[in-house]
TrEMBL record:
Organism: Arthrobacter terrae
Gene assigned in the entry: aceE
EC annotation from Swiss-Prot or TrEMBL: 1.2.4.1
Protein name per its UniProtKB record: Pyruvate dehydrogenase E1 component
Keyword Magnesium: yes
Keywords: Magnesium, Metal-binding, Oxidoreductase, Pyruvate, Thiamine pyrophosphate
Amino acid sequence: MAAGEENSHILSGLTHQLPDRDPEETAEWIESLDSLIQEQGTERAQFIMRSLLQRAGAQSVGVPMVTTTDYVNTIPADQEPDFPGNEEIERKYRAWLRWNAAIMVHRAQRPDIGVGGHISTYAGAATLYEVGFNHFFRGKDHPGGGDQIFFQGHASPGMYARAFMEGRLSEEDLNGFRQEKSKEGHALSSYPHPRLMPEFWEFPTVSMGIGPMNAIYQAQSNRYLHNRGIKDTSDQQVWAFLGDGEMDEPESRGLLQLAANDKLDNLNFVINCNLQRLDGPVRGNGKIMQELEAFFRGAGWNVIKVVWGREWDDLLAKDDDGSLVKVMNTTVDGDYQTYKGESGGFVREHFFGQTPQTKEMVADLTDDEVWNLKRGGHDYRKVYAAYKAAVEFKGKPTVILAHTVKGYGLGTNFEARNATHQMKKLTMPDLKKFRDHLRIPISDAELEKDLYRPPYYHPGMDAPEIKYLMDRRAKLGGFVPERRTEYAEVALPADKTYEVANRGSGKQYAATTMAFVRLLKELMRDKEFGARIVPIIPDEARTFGIDAFFPTAKIYNPNGQNYLSVDRDLILAYKESISGQIVHAGINEAGSVAAFTAAGTSYATHGEPLIPVYVFYSMFGFQRTGDSLWAAADQMTRGFIIGATAGRTTLTGEGLQHADGHSPLLASTNPAVVTYDPAYGYEIGVIMHDGLERMYGKGPSSGDSTRNVMYYITVYNEPIIQPPAPEDMDVEGIIKGIYLLAPAKVDGPRAQLLASGVSVPWALEAQQILADDWGVSADVWSVTSWTELRRDGLAAEEEQFLNPGTNARTPFVTEQLAGATGPIVAVSDYMKAVPDQIRQFVPNEFATLGADGFGFSDTRAAARRFFKIDSHSIVVRALEMLARRGEVDWQTPAQAIEKYKLLDVNAGTTGITGGDS
């Protein structure tokens, strides 16, 4: 191991591996710099250093990029702005907030409740939040439009405590923490959940990593709205409060380059670096702040470190030989955590005692004074300086790395302990020490009345401190967090827009993907409505046929297109624009869902509805990004999710990881997702028309939760003749999930064929074969949504369960199939469990054909014959069921298997070639 390599992860790496051939000259240069700083200040010194580095580069002097700086504050003490508030008043009610947050969680953990909660996160981050609440976070009534704040999920008790001080929540509300049904009407969700508290929280964040990702795309969406002329968002900031342990999630770091590339200087990450995960240190042997500094700076971000409080300023000023900074640089996080779990004497011996120079620095300080040398994230002035610098910085997003102590102020049993995250209640001695530390005017007698119900503290709305607090919020534009749902009226497209879907494809072959794209193009052409559509694609536009939109709608890029496009002479040239409409996220499904979420909640965030249409490889939707789609549901996103290249056997050639046979099942687990598997373009038209009406039509009020849905529509890449809409089109059946597509054409033994999506033509072919070869009379039903039929059936069962003795409502699928005699064969290009969703609601004998197992590369015909879902398999299955009933000869199924060579994959004929993959 090379010299110094063992510490390369915590040191800047500029000089510690290089020999100093002339120490005397080096000392002269350093002395010259020190003189410059003393005489003209750090700002002038920064300019000189930058100039020298630039000149060194021009002269080919190899100077390494400084990815990490020393373990000290980025903003020098002489450049700190004056703190504009009353620090004493703010500190006073911050103590009340911390008390009430802890008491709320403590009460919720009493033996008869035991619902838990987290005390230590907010205790350590209170200063980070309060500086923002008092001086930076703009509410929705601010002239600039207000900021968007992504609160750290585990810190939610602090936000509730502040809302209590503001008069927005009552004691009864605080007592309902995590008891959302038993204390309904006075209940608080565990974490930021907009769907559970739709007037309070805006952004769900507690699924780690999704907050950072969504915050980046929220900032991008703000710029998108501005650059397209929909809303002026130039004065709005996005703040994301994150934990240092959370930054190990790939999603937390994986999209940083987008923020830098788009120059999102409206975005601020605040990372609460308390050095702890849920179970122990983040980097016990290293330094997480240094690691994050290098990572963010390398990704193109502006980095501000807030490491030490003001008590360290004098010590650092006396650090003439750099001994203190060296100790700071080389001390690892595991030790920093330990120091806060021990005493001032321990810190004196083990930290300052590492060198004679540093030991001498604190010789005049008492152990208590040594102990009270604070971390920077607990110092109002240091945090204020960082926030001010962040919002004023232009050209890059900013990350603030704030050094804190988890469980700060909760006492020695909590502060910096590995178990502190899971500690949810305090003992009586803990309560008294905590009260004394915060100077809460509550007597021992009041505390001792009931260990599990210590009192909250509120001095009354007329107290000067509360008036100050309320005045700060009024000047900043109102309360935060707050969610509003009033939005601009949406003029939906006229019925004629859907004619392109209803007229079919004539003699041309067109996959349902193309039918969808043609409809989307018409919707985007609508003069009033079209501009609100946000097409979102993860680098597969040409596969989906959306490249036709490039020349007209253009791809959104805040930097425009500053190059000569290689395909500029083609009709479908790749065109980027500052005002482009298409969000092209690259090979990035996670980012695409984040963009979908930001656009789909713009109706609430900005009062300007956008209709996101996210088109993706079916397999890489709910399987890859299901957690993000769940968060989108929590945030009450509205829009369309298009699973293109759907099905297990339709995407020929691509093979196992591209062959989707289960997405509808995954989608069915999300209550906000309305899933459809249409067969034809006219069905897609009916479904999208219904979706837009449900989301933004003239129906119930904008706050109606039934509007907060995402329509998931699967479309395929197999070309077929798209039929025109039937004259007597069963619109209700299409929307609710099933309609009779093709009645039987002959008299004979009866069977019912239920199919969805790409399998509907197979069922129609099977209907013809059954009639021609076996004299069987089969009806064909198009099932547009197995999932919606199941949900309706379950709802009917629930109604009967809770209302015994009343006439039970008949499930829609049961009602539709009433009078449809004979056995049912249900088929789709998905696994059997998809059609099986409706089995319990169908009185007929029921059999399912499906593509269970892994997908593979082959022809469509061979794959369908292998899975036994092709037309001839449908025929044989129907004949077997009829034979058991004695309605056809018992030998017929075996004859059919031999006739159609059902066991030979090379004998399959179902499906045609063609379609992009």
